[in-house]
């Protein structure tokens, strides 16, 4: 089956969620990938949304972080304060699954401003739950489309910390979680290099060239010694994803591509 | 004891110019009708507190009611930017607005601390983030037992909190369910609290351990069916996703925004009239 680069991205991200993992899910691309994982390889993945649902099993993708279906399909719904206090800060989240407006080579995330904070060129939505997810989840996965506007050499603002300045930054900051372990894009998968914690390309999606990746990265991106080729989406994965998007579009009255 | 009042009277009596006001509701049960009434009554110099400003604060900010915004995520969920918030921050329209920015975990903890009567909240947060550099109220505290350095943030204790809920009984006891966000904490953190409800019933029939706010902890209860639109009220109506999308072009320009506020909010007597006007406009389309 032929597939789009966006489908490859979502499928590659979904594969990273092991069955049974407790996953704190951001809205948008992370939610799509996490639900695809639940519908394919990882039926027992536990999805937690910051609005309060724990163990949500939505049949369509939520448009907002607090859609009613998340509550109706959850094992339990708790207050938002409890989500952050008991479940995240309490150390019960295996994987924090985040999107981003911009990332840098150490997996630090900006969702606050482009330009100066006090005189911004572009004012972005802000932190939401991400800073503490990035700090306290045992591991973090980041999913976003790759471009040199999104993958920048230097962030104007660090909203949520990844590996800080690299090396043992996280340890020095006293952060409990391991930090970002993968950035999944529409072109490739990046993982932190041992020691430096700089993200390097470890797997290239089928048909993508190294030049494309370099052009779409705002820093001098490096490639691991043994770069893999990402396994193309299977028919099962693609069908599950397309069905999910079609159900979502029908439920929300959108065109299929918008879901 | 909560008084059963009209929304007009509750806002007139309990929301003053210059107050800090929290209109809470996390995607669910957003007290939109109360936001409209604050605009209608021309309240000003408000410090608005809310985790997710959403359309309700886009309207209040664009209408010139706010002096300051305390928040943690400011977007139109599933759609994009809050254009009135951005215009106020980026271009000081209709006037300059001070922003005090936090994370969700921070504000959620700050409401818990406020409801607990504490001056600050403590949480494990912000290490490595630039937010403390732009918000001097984010400080740190050292644990006296372990030596761990943790974040300390001021509690949120609004002059008045407004929330929307499903049901009240005739005494003014309030029941809400579904996604609760920080509504209970925001209600108990505030000096005064207004609750708008979908219906008033003889008996709440609340299950044990349900989220019930007793009448004696509230100031006013107002019957406003549909008052959370375009957000939703679980068990009553769904989120109006199309309105969230329709808001984007309305709010994009100052002219179209002002025309909308003049027509739909300042040009209507109350939420019932607003709903009727909105419905007839949708039929015309």
Automatic annotation (TrEMBL), chain A:
Q: What is its EC number?
A: 2.8.3.6
| Top-rank EC class of the record's enzyme | transferase
Which catalysed reactions does the entry list for this protein?
3-oxoadipate + succinyl-CoA = 3-oxoadipyl-CoA + succinate
> What is one process in the GO biological process aspect for this record?
beta-ketoadipate pathway
Pathway noted in the entry: Aromatic compound metabolism; beta-ketoadipate pathway; acetyl-CoA and succinyl-CoA from 3-oxoadipate: step 1/2
- Say yes or no: keyword Membrane present: no
Molecular-function annotations in GO: 3-oxoadipate CoA-transferase activity
Q: Does the keyword Transferase apply?
A: yes
Sorted keywords for this record are: Transferase
A Pfam family it matches: CoA_trans
Q: Which InterPro entries match?
A: CoA_trans_fam_I, NagB/RpiA_transferase-like
Which PANTHER family does UniProt cross-reference here? Answer: ACETATE COA-TRANSFERASE YDIF, CHOLESTEROL RING-CLEAVING HYDROLASE IPDB SUBUNIT
Protein name, as recorded: 3-oxoadipate CoA-transferase
Q: Which organism is it from?
A: Pseudomonas wadenswilerensis
TrEMBL record, chain B:
Q: Which reaction does it catalyse?
A: 3-oxoadipate + succinyl-CoA = 3-oxoadipyl-CoA + succinate
Read off the InterPro entries from this record: CoA_trans_fam_I, NagB/RpiA_transferase-like
Q: What's the protein name?
A: 3-oxoadipate CoA-transferase
Query: Which gene is transcribed and translated to give this protein?
Result: catI
Record carries keyword Transferase: yes
Task: Extract the GO molecular function terms from the UniProt entry.
Answer: 3-oxoadipate CoA-transferase activity
The residues forming a coiled coil are none
Protein's organism: Pseudomonas wadenswilerensis
Q: According to the UniProt entry, what is the EC number of this protein?
A: 2.8.3.6
- Return one Gene Ontology term, BP aspect: beta-ketoadipate pathway
In what pathway does it function?
A: Aromatic compound metabolism; beta-ketoadipate pathway; acetyl-CoA and succinyl-CoA from 3-oxoadipate: step 1/2
Record bears the keyword ATP-binding: no
User: Which EC class is the enzyme in?
Assistant: transferase
Top-level division of the source organism's lineage: Bacteria
Membrane-crossing residue ranges in chain numbering: none
Cite the entry's keywords alphabetically.
Transferase
